[in-house]
Write a structure and sequence with these properties.
Shape: elongated
Helix content: 25-40%
Strand order of the largest sheet: 2-3-1-4-5-6
Mean pLDDT: 82
Radius of gyration: 61 Å
Largest sheet: 6 strands, mixed
Distance between the termini: 157 Å
Number of strands: 54
Strand content: 25-35%
Amino acid sequence: MTVTSAVSITYYDPFGVYPHIIKDIQSRLPLRNLHWHDPPRPLRSIASLSINLYEESLNDDTTLQHQIPGLLDTPYMKIILVKCEDNDTYRASVRKIIREWFSTKVASKRDSTEWLIIYYAPNLSNSSNSALRFKSGVFDKIRSDFNTSSKEDRCVLVKPGRTTVDAAGPQVNENVEGWNEIMAKIRAGVLDAFGKRVRMYEAETKKLEAKKSIPGWNFATFFVMKEGLALSFENVGLLDDALMQYDELDATFMQLMRDNTVTYFQNVGFSPGSMSSLLNRDEDVSIRHAILENNISLFDFRCYLFSRQALLLLTLMASASSASMAAMRMANFLIRSRNFTLETSRMLVFYGKNQYLVANWVYGVAQEILDSTEVQTQTIQGGRTRDVAEGRAEVLLLARSAIERLATRKGWRIGNVDFEDINLTTETVIANEDDELAQYLNPTLKEILKDETTFMTAYMEITDTVMSYYESADRTRSVDKLRAQQAIIKYQEQKYEEAARLLASLPQIYSNQGWELISTNLFLIYAHCLYKLDRKEEYVKIYLQILTTRKDSSIQQHSEICEKIKAASRDMENDMTFPLSSLFSTSISKQIYVSTTKDDSFYITIEIYNPFNVQWSLNTASVRLIEPAGMKHTVLFRSTDEVILTPGRQTVTLRSAHDIPGIYEIDNIEFRMGSLLLVKDYFGDRPLENQEMRLYQQPGNLDVSLSTPSRIRLDDAKKVLIGLHTGWNDIESGKVTARSASSGLRLLILQTEASLKHGDSTQSFELKHTAEATPLLEFGPLNPESTLCLAIPYMIETEMKELYIRVQVEFKTKSQEFYSLSVTRHVSIGLPLAVNVQDIFKASKLFSKFSVSCIGPSTPLRIVSGVLTGNEQFAVSGGRNTDRPCVAFPKQAVTYVYSVTQNPKEDLQIQNRLPLSLVIQYRQLEDEMRATLRRTIAAKLKSVGMEKYQRLVEQHAQDQLICDFTSYGFLNKLVMGKYETGQWEAVLTQIRRPDSEIVSDCLAEIYNDIPADSEEILAEYTKEVVILVEIPTIQLLFTVEVQYSMESGQPADSIKPQLQSSCMFSDKVFYIGQAIPVILRLECSTAWSQDGRDLLGTGEIEFGYEVMAPSDTWIVSGKRKGHFIISDKPITFPLVILPIRHGNILLPTIEVRPSQRQHEQVTAEMEYKNNAESVLVLPEISNVVLAVGE
């Protein structure tokens, strides 16, 4: 059976015309570029259409009119060839012949057939005009008699070609125009006939399909009519449309099968002797008649329907326009073939057919399908190759399944597992089945099944081929399945190395896909292979994975696996890590617990759930905590003894002797069993399970403090003090490591000085220095409640305000317990205060004004005292209330004024003047506030027995404290604000109930205004800074005075006895406009000079003076500006000043400055004795009249 893409055209030639035109017709066939459009279908294009020409006669047998059109094979067009010389002949005989042909062959047919009359005029080209008219008259007569419609001309005139002779020889000129008209008529007739047939078949099938729900509906009639439509499309080369009709037929049939409404099949069929090729069937017409007569088996019908689809697909594949299209057609064909074969084989077995004969038929069909696509497969390339490879793999698997089925009859099984695709019903083996199978068995199968070795070889070869196809198709899961089957075969053959290689990744792949049972079985096989190969680490890991997936297995199976794991873990050379959460469920307590036995230990609890019915023994269990930010410190909690995990839940307590206070999160949990490590990583695997935990100290734990010396001299070497407070620890020995945590800080560890304070006594302490890359300080015994103070010099490369130092202490107590403490502390090294000094020079004294202020707005200070101390050269006096504490706020400095005088026995002009010492004692208000808060918390918690939480509560309270310096500085109270439980939730969750409730009540009481501590309590936080104050020096000191002269004409009653050289203005009364004679007196001194030069005797240094008086107050008469040469004698200048405004008026001011002609730079100060001195000026009034009203 083949696919025929050609239409039939018959011709009736009663006049012998065909031999004259046969060459002309054949040269114009096949028809090309046909276009058929039948709305609503889209336009269909037919590139080439073959024409089969058959001669017919009036005596041919005709098909009965009542038969179904789908079974008829009638031509698409009928043609009569006419030749007539004159009208008489035409009327006498020709017209009768044409009418008889039309009535017999055209008008009586039910199928849509077009017809055409071709009139052949052999002598028309050489005739005279009269002959032309005559001949044309015959043709016109034919057209008049037989054209049934004025719109359609069914008569065509054709003339023979005319022969001419030229230099090239005889040439035949065809009648091109006439033949074009004939071929156009044929093209149009074929397409018209095709369209009518399509519409007829569609109308009939719709009528039949509409009756499908009526009982007794005849599917056979519907099938034949539907196939007639498919054959019509096939005849004109529209194979896709033909395939669609067969697909619809197949879908309808399968639906009827599912509905169990197909009743016209006589039997299932499938006789071994009647099985023929699926793709080479020639009985198509007889099968269609058998279908119509309900005389076909179910098996034959299924094969016929599929063969029609398959041949259309193969034809489409062979005629594809591109390799990609051919691959798509082939892939479709292969998948359809696989589905058909599988469904049909299941149907046959369901109806009780011999399963081994069915397997034989499946193998033959598979081979036929593969052979039919072998050549095309080798030529296909491109993106569709994977689809073809997948299809061939599926068909090959059918062939392999057939081989497996036949092998089971001989007792051969793959890996002791029957890999059947379907669950077959049990059938009774008939005695002659073996003979029947042997008679019809495929020759290739006979060769494969001759012995088990050949069978296994063929099976593995087919499997390898299928795997290669699947790999090309990127069907990884299918490849994994086949690889698993190969591995089982290798395991059965005791080829453990090859089986292990194949199973290396397969079990986990199936586990990831959710196939736990398959995964577990493969894991067991894989583990056994590794066990046989003595690869301990690998099979232990596999057994652990088996436990992960099969926690509900039997106790015996778990026990066996556990014993193997235990035995192997003791002998493994290297540690092996496995996820802990795959075996056990764990939950860690939210709190870190402090010791209750006065030691520096810390504890956490971990709840473990063992889902197995087996007891596990762990060497150690540990939990590591890590700081999520900052220095990333870690703290390890470990079990002190062996841990026994019984089935169910239990709680295990873990201990740590390493104290690194801070906020932590869980890093990991680790269980060790020999060389096996079970690890649960919180940061990597389960960040959502993590929780915040706080590691805090008790008041009795060893602690470290960092500070600066309480007394600081700015000229001393810089040191930082590290204090080790032993608490309740009775230490036998220990060592200290101090590292810089600030960039640019260098600690001079080897120059460390130590002192030990115990109670009220302080004594020096000897340390052992270890010069290593990181120097260590080793110390001996320390009693409880003592403090070891380490004074460490340091150097800094850049200016910094704070130092950060990491201190680690490791010590052993006298009870032989080892502990460690690691902290990072910081201390401020910048002075929080600033001192400004203003010096006022006098001839015999120096007044110094010191202003002490805080550096910034956030560091108000309490200045406890400020004292300036003298020496043997200078005496200091003044400074009232210097021992009274005062608070220095920003822009509100504390001021001290001192008078400095030279001791009588000392010379002011010595070269080496000793500096004075300014000693300032101070405290930062913030330090006071935090110390008050610390003391209050400690006292409150101790009163309720909760002192072990002091450090935890205190640290958070200090973080939450908002320093109100104004209230504290002026009102001496610490304002805490309102207690908010939400701010303390993170801390209270670290305390177990009911302790957390007691602590919360204490906090509610603490959050009130707290009175400031007394001076005696805060004295320990007082710092003292010693600042060396150099005595200032100047080269010249001018003493300037405006003296009153007795020649002023003052009235006698107002003038007192004249003094030696002047008269005090405060004793005088002057009047507006009164001339007041004065003397400007200038004295020059080098008393505060340090260079020792005699500037006064040189006669070269010139200064100038200027009298400065407001123009609305004084009129100055005399030399207001002048220059003078300095000397050791007084210099005077007479002046007259006149007041022009009454009241207490300040005297004019005097300025002394170097002359512009003076080139040498000379420093000078001036003491103006009349500074801020005023005189009383009255208006000059002789009489006063007072008017008193009535």
